[in-house]
Amino acid sequence: MTDKAVPAAELYTDEFAADPYPAFAKLRTDSPVCPVTSPRFDSFLITRFEDAKAALNDPRLSKDLYGPGDHYLRIFGPNSAGLNKNMLNSDPPEHSRLRQVTGRAFAPRRIEALRPRVAEIVSGLLDKVEPQGKADLMRDFAIPLPMLVVSELLGIPRTDNDNVLEWTQVIRESGSSGRPPAEEKARVQEAQAWLHGYLQDLVTAKRAEPGDDMVSMLISACDEEGVLSERELVSTAFLLLFAGHQTTADFIGNAMVALLTNPEQLALLRKTPELLPHAIEELLRFDGPLPVASPRVATEDLEYQGVRIPEGSIVGVVINSANHDSAQFEDGDRLDLTRERGPHLGFGHGVHYCLGVSLARMEAQIGIGALLRRLPGLALSVPVDKLRRLPAASPFRGLIELPVHFTA
């Protein structure tokens, strides 16, 4: 076992983007708490299940990147300040206050009431895809599905959906456009500025004409209850917009690749569709959309697996590595839809456990179920190693394109 630092350039390669799991397995064996160096910031990666679970709930690992040290500047850059002051980047009691406000919109009864509308959106998307005999499942289905759902939840007018989607995708696909780094950075900053301005304008519009939507609810919490600041209001709206569609879109894409490259598991799910809710959990464990949990900062000197993590260090909990740990999941690198359901970390753990878990599960179940029912003979149109993916250093694991063909 070694705690020798690994340069990020050696870890985040094209091969890693295609399949990070061999590298994760090596880290779990050789360096379960691995120092990683990069030009922007150094960090420690925690890769084993028990360590990851403990770290996700360790109060000494702070999510408040805006506290002492302004760690957000190192991680996100100065243009993030207006969009990232939200519950994702905060600790109790601030986190508890923000989560309580936002949690009202995710009450189980409210989410379950969305089921017919989610099914309607899925059906509408597939009505366009089905006659073609081929599709890009990311562009035509996986990305627009959760985007349409979260836009309606937030109260974004349908006429604005295309522009909002375009700018969020600029951020999502950062690093994959082939532009020079300076031009790419400027493009992302432009997207951040546009989204910040758009959400401010949306708040202004909803103040004048409130509705039964999340933004109007947040405005009430800000103006009438005084439990949200204006900055927190806009930032929380951005978090709900981005987190509400990004991870679900990437999960649906990853799940379909997993099924299409494991034909016996695909056949099993087609034969026993009642297995779908259980299958969603295994697919999330197998190849989740958020490989590393959002950054944490050590508030004091720590030690994990005998490795000292100095105060002020940035720590990444590698969820996708933990979810393949053979000490927790037998033959963890194998997809098994009949696997006994275990406590995977795909939705996180502790106080930052995913708030939108019920909605994400519903969208995935309805969406993937409909794909399997309505697109017979579904298959990849390119070899799996030729799929275009997000860059290895992206905080997300997802696809840029997912070309498929099927029987029209």
3D structure, described in words:
GO terms for molecular function: heme binding; iron ion binding; monooxygenase activity; oxidoreductase activity, acting on paired donors, with incorporation or reduction of molecular oxygen. Pfam families: p450. With 408 residues, the protein is an alpha+beta fold. It has a single domain (6-405), classed as Cytochrome p450. It contains 18 helices and eleven strands. A six-stranded mixed β-sheet has the order 1-2-3-9-6-4. It has a three-stranded antiparallel β-sheet with strand order 5-11-10. Strand 7 (302-304) and strand 8 (307-309) form a beta hairpin. Helix 11 runs antiparallel to helix 12 (181-208) and helix 14 (230-260) packs across helix 16 (276-286). It is globular and about 60 Å long. The model has no long low-confidence stretch (mean pLDDT 90).
